[in-house]
């Protein structure tokens, strides 16, 4: 039995029952693929169910406000996925009359859709012969064929895409794509896979050469930078609080947060005066302050570590753009801000 048929046979006996595998509706398949980018199935499934429930059609998603979409997405991280999801829905509704693209080439035109996602939707919804290459596929192919080309290099991306395309079952591309991804997720796992029960063990180069823990190869990540964030939790006598939309580009664009001042280092309580209060209400008003956390809360992102302090500011009266503390949870926020709101005794 050759490689692809072994995978398909294994899949028929071991696949998980997941809702997006029970439909050919491209909207639902697209939702699942965007949600599952950078997210494990166990974490993503409740979000998928929530999106399908709240936005059962692409028209419903397109009509929603970005704030409500971001709020529903809260906790998944990589918020550009949610912004792109919303933008793509509006594009399909407004520019394509609600007709979802039905081929790989046109799917690539959707914001937030790259080679993998376009291939997945094209094959799962339309049975197009388009090979998927995600982290699971890289791992299976790298180990089975003993390929040590870095999977995140330009050469590696082309090499693995070409190999995946040569292997796909042209008669049943959707099943094959699902099979190789599921195999990577459940059997050929990143760490400590049980190779002794693997149906592909006899042909696996990595197993034969003791390279399972080495493959696949990735180029080293960009050096992580450290940033020092100081959030000003400004509360007045009438239980109003300052909460603002983060408009600058970045991972938290259009999410809400407390006024933020960056510093060059982590500040001790007695160093509060070193913050630059220019263009904030604290430059003109009298206030009292205390430090919520003397030890930094470190929020780790892929490319930077945020060393965070929350300063509690007691002030007589805030301007008209302040909101009621009770309404804080209505706004979409990062996990960092959400955890503070949940833990702080307002």
TrEMBL record:
Reactions mediated catalytically: Hydrolyzes free adenine bases from 7,8-dihydro-8-oxoguanine:adenine mismatched double-stranded DNA, leaving an apurinic site
NCBIfam families from the UniProt entry: mutY
Superkingdom of the source species: Bacteria
Function statement: Adenine glycosylase active on G-A mispairs. MutY also corrects error-prone DNA synthesis past GO lesions which are due to the oxidatively damaged form of guanine: 7,8-dihydro-8-oxoguanine (8-oxo-dGTP).
Family, as annotated: Belongs to the Nth/MutY family.
Keyword annotations of the record: 4Fe-4S, DNA damage, DNA repair, Glycosidase, Hydrolase, Iron, Iron-sulfur, Metal-binding
Protein name, per record: Adenine DNA glycosylase
UniProt source species: Winogradskyella eximia
GO molecular function: 4 iron, 4 sulfur cluster binding; 8-oxo-7,8-dihydroguanine DNA N-glycosylase activity; adenine/guanine mispair binding; metal ion binding; oxidized purine DNA binding; purine-specific mismatch base pair DNA N-glycosylase activity
Cofactor annotation comment: Binds 1 [4Fe-4S] cluster.
GO BP terms: base-excision repair; mismatch repair
EC numbers: 3.2.2.31
Membrane spanning residue stretches: none
Pfam families named in the record: EndIII_4Fe-2S, HHH, HhH-GPD, NUDIX_4
Matches recorded under InterPro entries: A/G_AdeGlyc_MutY, DNA_glycosylase, Endonuclease3_FeS-loop_motif, HhH-GPD_domain, HhH_base_excis_C, HhH_motif, MIG/MutY, MutY_C
Domain HhH-GPD, chain residue ranges per copy: 35-186
SUPFAM superfamilies: DNA-glycosylase, Nudix
Necessary cofactors: [4Fe-4S] cluster
């Amino acid at each position: 039995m050759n490689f692809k048929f072994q995978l398909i046979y294994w899949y028929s006996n071991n696949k998980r029952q997941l809702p997006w595998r029970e439909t050919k509706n491209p909207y639902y398949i697209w939702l699942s693929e965007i949600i599952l980018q950078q997210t494990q199935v166990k974490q993503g499934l409740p979000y998928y169910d929530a999106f399908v429930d709240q936005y059962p059609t692409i028209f419903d998603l397109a009509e929603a406000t970005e704030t409500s979409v971001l709020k529903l997405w809260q906790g998944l991280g990589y918020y550009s996925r949610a912004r792109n999801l919303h933008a793509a829905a509006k594009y399909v509704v407004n520019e394509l009359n609600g007709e979802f693209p039905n081929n790989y080439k046109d799917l690539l035109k959707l914001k937030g859709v790259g080679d993998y996602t376009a291939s997945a939707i094209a094959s799962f919804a339309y049975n197009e012969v388009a090979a998927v290459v995600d982290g699971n596929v890289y791992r299976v192919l790298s180990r089975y064929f003993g390929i040590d080309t870095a999977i995140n290099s330009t050469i590696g991306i082309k090499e693995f895409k070409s190999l995946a395309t040569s292997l796909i079952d042209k008669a049943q591309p959707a099943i094959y794509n699902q099979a190789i991804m599921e195999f990577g997720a459940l059997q050929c796992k990143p760490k400590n896979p049980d190779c002794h029960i693997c149906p592909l063990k006899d042909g696996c180069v990595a197993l034969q050469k003791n390279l399972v823990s080495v493959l696949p190869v990735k180029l080293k990540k960009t050096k992580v930078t450290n940033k020092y964030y100081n959030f000003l939790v400004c509360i007045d006598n009438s239980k109003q609080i300052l909460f603002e939309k983060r408009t600058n580009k970045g991972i938290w664009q259009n999410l809400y947060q407390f006024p933020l001042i960056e510093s060059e280092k982590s500040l001790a309580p007695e160093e509060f005066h070193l913050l630059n209060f220019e263009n904030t209400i604290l430059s003109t008003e009298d206030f009292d302050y205390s430090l919520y956390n003397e030890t930094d809360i470190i929020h780790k992102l892929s490319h930077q570590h945020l060393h965070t302090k929350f300063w509690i500011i007691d002030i007589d009266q805030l301007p008209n753009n302040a909101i009621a503390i009770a309404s804080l949870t209505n706004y979409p926020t990062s996990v960092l801000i959400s955890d503070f709101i949940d833990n702080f005794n307002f």
